[in-house]
Amino acid sequence: MSDFHFVFSCAVCRKVRDDQWDGANNQEWCTLVDFLRRHQAFADNVHLSECYCPECALSYDRLVHYGQAAFDGLP
To answer: What is the reported pLDDT for 22?
Structure first.
């Protein structure tokens, strides 16, 4: 395992995606602290790239949908 980790971080809730987690899923979204503990890594060795976790992406899609519906109802 390399000392450098490239990790996706949710822009809304700040959770990070852990693709190497041995849990039931292929990936899990967890806090950065949990990620660092699991991989015994230092924060200086982690590069974060922003994206959206599935929960926040779904919330955003709903917000856009309801906003568009309200906008379409204007005279």
So the answer is: 63
